[in-house]
Design a protein that fits this description.
Helices cover about 65% and strands about 15% of the residues. The chain is of the alpha+beta class. It has one domain: Orthogonal Bundle (Arc Repressor Mutant, subunit A), CATH 1.10.10.10.
Amino acid sequence: MAIDYTSQEYWNGIIKMSLSKFFILRVLYTQSMHGYEIARTVAEVTKGCCTPTEGTIYPALREFEEGGYVSVVVEATGGRERKVYTLTDKGRQAFQVAAAAWEEVTKYIVKALI
């Protein structure tokens, strides 16, 4: 099936997929969180523009953990276990690099619209 490049849904999906990893790092930059809390906070920070699903968050978190960007601690709460994710120094550096890259790209996107 051919991609419909005239579809706003297509472009929104591509943009949001890229932004999800950035915003996961962003919310973990300020504090440690568990998966559901990360999703909720990303949605709040982006005012609903980026609302990552479990299918987006957990693979990204696994990738970040494997790369040494986050550390994970399992906590027991109310008889349930949940993983709490914390950015490592490498993760904090990754967020800063990502922020600079997005800032640069955004500048050019805005200039191209004028």
